[in-house]
Each structure stands twice: as structure tokens, then as C-alpha cells.
């Protein structure tokens, strides 16, 4: 219980705020579609609410488990996830939706092993990067094992196909290795090889090329491949500075594809305008900033990398989703964490956040609480002065 | 909080010492990190912080890019976005309203729109065409095999199964709920009275647009406003909440309230058609007009047509003869001349006119009366319809005043009624020959439409005020509110009220014993009228034995309500207007009086008792004798002044007066005008058709004389 009380309040607050926005927006964006497809306006919101409650339970539960307990599960989890990812690809087992085979039937719901893979991969990288810390400067030990293991998982996800997740996890791999202290020269060399390779993969298939060209000039393809992006842009245009008001979106009336999942950010942009966009972006920024800043004070390297990795993973997924719907990044099927309707993936996301919260709790118990600050707000306001007064490095205590 | 600096009560020293110790301990913890094998220092907390900060910086840059991008999308100057957004969600759905009705003056329907159910199928959605055909065949009363073939038709998504079926059949089909078989509504225009008033109502085309008659003239009003609903459209191009909008079928075209009286119209058509059969006429018309307002109560036209089945009908029948047929009116014009003479006090009713014992020379031509009279009072001139009497009375007016009078009543011009009409022919008096001037006084040399005559006649007897003939009084909306009140204003005064009263009395004499129109006499109502029998002009000449027979009457005599004109074109056997058209007027007038609730003001001579029957029989005999006398009297009218073929003499009207040169070749005109020394201006070639100055005007030396010339056959006008 002590742990729960000590979780970082700003991380928790941003999570809950985003979750609340998500509940409202899933209802607003999905009601028409739900009524049309499922015969009930409340089809998505009911399920989303249920998953949100389950997610809150999962998050609480995970927050109570000391993150150190995941260490021994690193390889079993990685193996299990790999097995599931392989299982997805077995014909007749994996469920195909929209041309992608990403799901396993698990009772009443569909399980997406790539969601599990995110947690497993972060734990693996945190564990492995900590363990190989003494040889982190070498390519063979500091980089290669991670490339191989993570690469295997990424390859399995890539062939589903799930480019969004592949892209997110690839970026995460680099960022975690970077934070863990891998040599910058190695990473630069790696990027020099990986980026052209990624480009080749991207342009290797006709339908992916179509996506890229649509991304580069959606106006030229607004009737077909560029339609979704143009419609997303029009949502922001319709919203303007202050939006058309909650529930008033017209773009969600089947102009936006999957308004309640992948393009929910566009609906926010339409209904709440730039104000809403700014609010959501700021909440994610606050979340990432706090997650990284607090986790870095975790008692051990595993915890630090785990916290930083999880925070960056969620932040990256959000950034990529928002980049996609605004046309900064090529179109990918990727949900906006905590906000999009996502069923089981919401639960898994929140479970990961539970792990993160535990990291923040332990970090704060170790540092901030030891400095005597009673509340985070108090600490923020007083930290700098205290640091000046005490001649301390500001970054230490302000966190 | 600023206690640290002031160093007062918060034990600053111990606190900062505590923090420093803590910090040192943390640093020490990190420093126990093992050395790397390559000899470099493993990243301590600070190095990791720096790297994490770098990553965070990248993140914030990314987030800032997203906000910037969203801002540009939201409010940036990109016309493509603005243009594309405009109208993307709107869909304009037009709802065509149900066409409005046309009703008579009492609201009885003449033209209505009904929605009939039709059954159609989308063959691509029909699962079992055999079973469907078997179910539908008995319901729709169609061949099962035919239905099956339609239901199984390839390459189409729409086939009619049965059009315009009764509602209960449509309901039964609907109840079967066969996939792909559906019901739709089709608008259908009904003319419940069949051919009644068809030539005025007109009809609509397949898309419901008015093609003829009132349907065409008031198409916009009847159609109503096509309502444009701007509704939200979703990404699949479906209107949002369309059901709610489309169910509002309150839109309906406006209703046209006509002046027509269903019952009088029916009587008029019946009487006309009976007379048409009896006299084997080639055409005919009956017009009943409210003398005070000019409202057209009835306008029958033969041959007629049924607007329900207009296809294949001769288009000439689409127009009412009262508007489309231009004919020479003959004696029905005489009352206008007499009224003008009386009104201008150029004669009195009892003044005796010398009637030349039946032959009156005008120049080298002669005007005849069939029954010679030495003298006739003005009343008598009208009663026996003396051409010579009229000629002499007309001379008191002069040609200019005569023409002006005709034009004042609207002859030679369109009446302004709501339908397409002819304006008739009235040449300027300047072009009249002397004999032409004479014939104009008894209605020859000009051509009119029936409606012109009826409306002019109304002014003669209604107290002297012109009326505007019209067919539509109001345009009403669905709620019965008047959208447009089309009742015309009072017209101008034509003659004094006193003259009008005189005219009623004089025209009354026409239907009394000794008059030409006793067959038009009403049994229960006092009345008046005038016969008209004109020889038809064929190929520029009066054709013997071919007549236009007409009668125009009004009732009651002292307070006229209705004027009725009946015209038969080329009746066979008999041709006198009083005989052929008079009975039609009698029937229609009587019916109109009853229909309008006019109290009978004349004792019915047919009293049902023995003595009365005997007296009635005697009266009938007397009437028949009188009718024979009337027919004899009427012969006057058919007589036309005949051309004796000699050249008009220039010296007739003074030293130098303009002669009548019309109909003369240019050669002769030059020969006649030569001695006068005038400056001759010629327009055209052939025979002289008009001249300036007019006949009888003085000619001065070197005066300009303009002659209009045309070859024979270029104009059908007769002078």
C-alpha cells in the first residue's frame, strides 16, 4: 500500500486524464459507427468502459508488484511472446482482420500478442542492458544480442503485418540502447544500415508504395489512397481553433476511417480544435517527461531502463499516432494509447503503466521522499530554491 | 519557504547538511558501478540523465511538430482544405411536392394529383424468382411466367412488376416481404370530370409538367416550390436523419380556384354537343360569362378532348375555340354600334331611320336588307337587324369613331385571359373602303374571338363597364390561404348606365315576338340577346352556303347576371343564328340562372292545366309562326353587300378627296390619283391593301399619298 501511495502523482494524473478523455471521445466518435454496424450507439462505449475498469485494476495490481520481480521472468516472457507471435502466423489459428493477421482468439476477446510483446521486449531490454552494462561499449555484447532477440520479435510482428508496432518497437530499441549507454558511433552506424533497409522493405510491396505516395501527396490521391489522410486533415480544419463542440464532429460520420480507434485524435481536433490538440499533446508530454525524469532515480539500472522504456514506449506510440493523423508520418494502423478504443490492448497498456508506476514509486521512495518533500507540487516549487540554497545540482532533486 | 535565506527558524544548516549527505551517498552508490572492460567509465546517473534528456528533447520537438502541424491544418492558409471542407457534409435533397389541384368556383375538383402504388423489383436481390412469381401472380393479376422472367432479369436492378395498383394490393404485396420486391409511389394526374373543361385545363406530361391550358399557364404555382432540404451527409453519401426529413410530405403545390362552374360547364358542353350532332357542325363554342366580373363560368369547345387521354388527339382540339378561332361576327356586332350612337346622342331610340326600301347604294356598291323596310325606329333596326339601318347609323359616327369604339371594347386585341388566345383582325379605319366602313357597322370585314364578343357584350348590358374576362380567381396554398388574388379590378366605363339600360330593353325585343331571337327566349327568366349569322370567307371570298351561326344572350333582362355566347361553325341544314345557336343559349342561360340561384322573373307560359295547355298549344303555334317570321327577318344578316365591279369615283366627296383604292391594282390607282397631282409613295407590289390618307379625306396638291401593296393571297383579310 505504501507503494501505491508513493507513485508519481503527475504520471498517474496524466494517465487518468488521458483515460477520461478517451472514454468521452470513444463515445463521441464511435456512437454513430456503432449504431450503424452493431445496432447500438453504446456498443463501443460499454465495452471501452469495461476494459477501462479492468485496465485500472490491472494497473493497480501491477503497481503493487515490485518491478524487480519481473527480472526472472524476462526470458520466459520473451519466449512465450515469441511463441504466441509464431502461433498467430500458423494458418487457422491467427485471426485475420483488415488484411492483417494479428490476433489470437482468447475466449470472448481477441488477444494481440504484439501488445504483450511490447512489455516483454521492454523488460528484456532493461534486463539485458543492465546485465551487459560492463560491456555496453562493445558492439558484440552491447548491441548485437539485443538486435538479434528484438529483431526476431520485430520480424514476427512485421510479417503479421503490423508496421506501426514494428516502427514503434524499433525506435524503442534504439532509444533504450542509447539511454543505456551504447556508443553513439555504433548506433549511428546501425542507423546507416537500418534506414536504407527499412526503406527497401517499405518500397518492396506495391500497396506499401501506394501508402507512401499517398502520404507524400494526398491531394493527388484524395479519391482513393489519400482519402483517409485528407479526411483527417479536414477534421482539423473543421475544428479550427476551438473546435465544433463535443459530439458535433461531422467527419466521424464515416468520412474518417475508424474514427473511434486510429483517427480518434482527428475527432478531438475537430470537436475541441487546437485547444483539444494542445491539451492531449501536453498530457502526453507531461506523462513522458515525468515518467522518464522520475524513473531515472529508480534504485537500480533495470528499474531505470524499465521505467524510461515504458514511458518512452507509450509516448512514442502516441507521437507516431498523432504524427500519422496529421500527415507527418506515413499511415499506419496504430491506436492512440489510453484514448483509442482498444479493448484488450487498453488493458495491456494499463498493465504496463502499472509496472511504470511501481518504478516511479520506488524511485520516489528512494530519492524524493528521502529529501523530505511532502508533496510533489511542493517539491517542484521548493526544489529549485532548495537546490540553490544547498548548492545542489538542480536536476537531482527537482526530478 | 524563504527561511533558508533569512536563516531564521527552520534549522537551515542541518537540513542542507542532511541533503548533502544524502546526495553524496547516492553518488557513491553509482560510483561503485564496475569498470567497463574497454576501460571507459560506465555511464553514471548523470550521463544517463543527459542521454535521457536528449531523448526527451527529441520527444518534445516531435510533440511541438505535431501541435504546429495541427495548428496549420486547423487555421493555416490552405485554400484546398477550406474548399474541400465546404459542402462536403451537405447534401441537397429536393422533394418534389404533390401537384396542386384545379377546382371550380365552388371547390369541386377539376384536376387532382393522386399517388398510386406501383410494384417494382430489384432482380439482383430476388432470391427465388419462381416462388416470388407464384406468390405475386394472383395478387397483381399478371401472368406468372411473365413475372418470373421479370424477376429473373439479368443486368438490371429495376423492373416494373405492376404499375398503379390499388392500395390494398400494394399492402398485400408489402406484407409478403419478398426480398427485392418493393413498392413505390407514383404521382398521377387525374381529371375526375373527364373531358369536362379539358380545353381550358390542359394536361401534364409524364414528369408532371404542365403542357397545355391552365396546367401549363400555372405550372409553377401548381407544382409548388420544390423544397430543397440541405441535410447532413455522411461519408457514405447517405443523408443523416433522412427519414425524419423525408416524412414531412406537407409540401404540396398550390390550388387553382377557377371561375368555372362545373355544373354550367357541363350543361354548356352537353348543349353544344347535342347541337353539333344535330347540325353536323365542324366546330362550336359556348361561353358563359359573369357580366359583372368577367368571370368565365363556362367555356365549352367542340371538338373537345379528355385530358386523361390526350395522346393521339388532334392538337387543334387542345385549345378552346372561344380563344383560338377567329371568325367574322356578323350581326352580333350591331348592338355595339347602336349603343355608341345612342351614347353619343347621335340618335334616339324612337328616331325613324329611312331604310331605303331594302337597297342602299354606297358608291358603286349596294347594301341590301333581305326584307325591305321604308323606315324603322332605332329599336326596330336592332330588332330586325337591318343592315341599311346600321349603315346609316354608323355614318353618323364616322369610320374613326367606329374603329375607336371597337378597339375600346377590346376587339382586335388580346383580352388578357390566362390562356393563349388570338387577337382577331381589326384593320385601321384609314384602310377601310367606303363599303368597308359600311360592312363594319354590321360586323363584316373584321374578325373576333368568342371571348372578345362575350366580354364586350357584358359591358353593353351590365351598366356600361368593361370587364376583364378571367379563368382564375385565386391561388391558394395547402392551408387554404390565398397566395394570389387574381380577381381583376373594375374596368373602364364604355357607355353610360342609361345607354346600357336602353340596350337591355332593345336586346330584349330581339327575343320577343317579332324579333330574330325568339328561340333563345327563356321560359322562366326575362332575357335579351342578338343573333348573328355570317357567311364564311373561303379563299378571300364569301362562300355561299357556309356560315358561322351564333347567338349571344343574357339574363335576367333588368339585372343581367350572365351572358352566354353560342357559336356553331358550318352548321348543316339550318344556319340562322337564332335557330341554330339560340336554343343552346336558352338552355345554358336557364341552367346558369338556376345554378346561381336567380329567382325566376318571368311567368312560365306552360301552366299545367287543360285550358292552359290549349293556350300553350296556341302559344306554341304562335311561337312557331313568329320563329318563321324571325328566320325570314334574319335573312337580312346573311346578305352581303356585293361588289358591282366598277371603279370608285374620285370626285364623289368634293373637289379632291381620297378615293377607296383598296383591292385595286397599282396601275388603276395611279390612273385615278394622277389628276390630283399627289406625291405617291408605294410600299410593296400587287394590289392596294391600305392607303393613307383614308377614304374621303381631302387631298391637296403635292400631298403625300402612301399605298400599301400586296399580291392577292398574301392576306386573307376581307374588306
Show the helix and strand layout.
The complex is a heterodimer of chains A (399) and B (719).
Chain A lengths: L1 H5 L2 H30 L4 H22 L9 H16 L5 E3 L2 E7 L2 E3 L1 H19 L7 H4 L1 H15 L4 H18 L3 H21 L1 H11 L10 H13 L24 H32 L5 H25 L18 H23 L9 H15 L3 H5 L1
Chain B lengths: L2 H4 L5 H20 L13 H31 L3 H7 L4 E6 L6 E2 L5 E13 L7 H12 L3 H8 L7 E7 L1 H10 L4 E10 L7 H4 L11 H5 L1 H5 L3 E6 L9 H5 L8 E4 L3 H18 L3 E8 L5 E7 L18 H4 L9 H10 L8 E3 L4 E4 L2 E4 L6 E3 H7 L2 H11 L1 H11 L24 H8 L8 H12 L10 E5 L5 E4 L11 H14 L17 E11 L2 E15 L6 E8 L7 H4 L1 H14 L14 H29 L27 H8 L5 E6 L2 E6 L11 E7 L9
Parallel strand pairs in B: 2-7, 19-21
Antiparallel strand pairs in B: 1-6, 2-3, 3-4, 3-5, 7-14, 8-9, 8-18, 10-13, 11-12, 14-15, 16-17, 17-18, 20-21
Per the principal axes of the C-alpha atoms, what is the gross shape of chain B? elongated
The percentage of residues in β strands of chain A lies in under 5%
- How does the major sheet of chain A shape up? 3 strands, antiparallel
Distance between the termini of chain A: 23 Å
Helix content estimate of chain B: 25-40%
Strand content of chain B: 15-25%
Which chains share the greatest interface?
A-B, 70 and 58 residues
Describe the structure.
The complex is a heterodimer of chains A (399) and B (719). Chain A has 399 residues and is mainly α. In chain A, strand 1 and strand 2 form a beta hairpin. Chain B is an alpha+beta fold. Chain B is elongated and about 155 Å long. At the A-B interface, helix 8, helix 11, helix 12, helix 13 and helix 15 of A face helix 2, helix 3 and helix 4 of B.
Give a concise summary.
The complex is a heterodimer of chains A (399) and B (719). Chain A has 399 residues and is mainly alpha-helical.
Summary keywords:
heterodimer; A: 399 residues; 69% helix; B: 719 residues; alpha+beta; 36% helix; disordered N terminus; disordered C terminus
